[in-house]
Amino acid sequence: MLIARRTVSAAIALLSASLAHAQPGGGTPAPDKNGYWLFNPTPRDLMRQMSTDRPDTTESPFTLDAGHVQVELSFVDFTYGRGNGTNTRTLAVAPMLVKFGLTNSIDLQIGIDPYTQERAEVRATGVTERFSGFGDTTVRLKVNVFGNDSTEATGGWALAVMPFVTFPTAREGLGADKVEGGIIVPAAVDLCEGWSLGLMAELDFVSSADGDGNALDFLHTATIACDLSDRVGAFIEYAGYLSLSDEEDYRAYFNTGMTYALTADVQLDCGVRIGLTGPADDLGVFTGVSLRW
Hints:
This protein has one helix at residues 2-20; strands at 69-83, 86-93, 96-101, 106-112, 115-122, 128-133, 137-146, 157-167, 180-192, 195-207, 214-227, 232-243, 251-263, 266-275, 283-292. By secondary structure, the chain is mainly beta. A twelve-stranded antiparallel beta barrel has the order 1-3-4-7-8-9-10-11-12-13-14-15.
């Protein structure tokens, strides 16, 4: 736990120090798109390059252009774990995030899980529990602080703030028992030609393990992405989950995957998650698509 807290402190210090140098300055001014909104869409020739919040855990600081819609979904997302004497298997079918560009710097996001199947088997007894059905619903609002259309004036950096609320729409055993929420702060910086670094800090206000109170979780991530070609990209990522209320042990993951841009508005992806600590799920695999209109 001490190592985990030092890792978190170091990540926060790195992010803070880096952003301190990313103050607006000179550079080529970005086009003025503040007049566009939900019902006055940004023209195609002024739209930003498509940016997605998948397939890595680290969210993007870039928002969807005003008046446009983007859908990001997994065809399937499978997770397997062997923690605490229990084998767990979770299969999510078509979990998706639907985005609406409200203004040039704000988008609204709605996340739903149409169908999730979870199976938990106690190894010592062979007793198995199964749950399946609709999952929780999450509403998020992403607000870009700087670097949305141009990062020249911010030292290559972009930053956003994203509050969210999760509603307990899932069947019992599959999701939260009451309304939960939190705030996400994603950042990104261009490292060199074709390479970028993404960082994210997230605070989650969730139900306590016994269900009688509240707990606070801290998610922190770092991802390095590179362009292998004009259409193909790859990433490696570290993601850590720390219970600030000491409700759970530290969970860490190594994630990696690839993306393939079919068009400027259609992107395929696939990837794998590997647990690095005992409490983490052992393996996760996924594949999906992002579509923009």
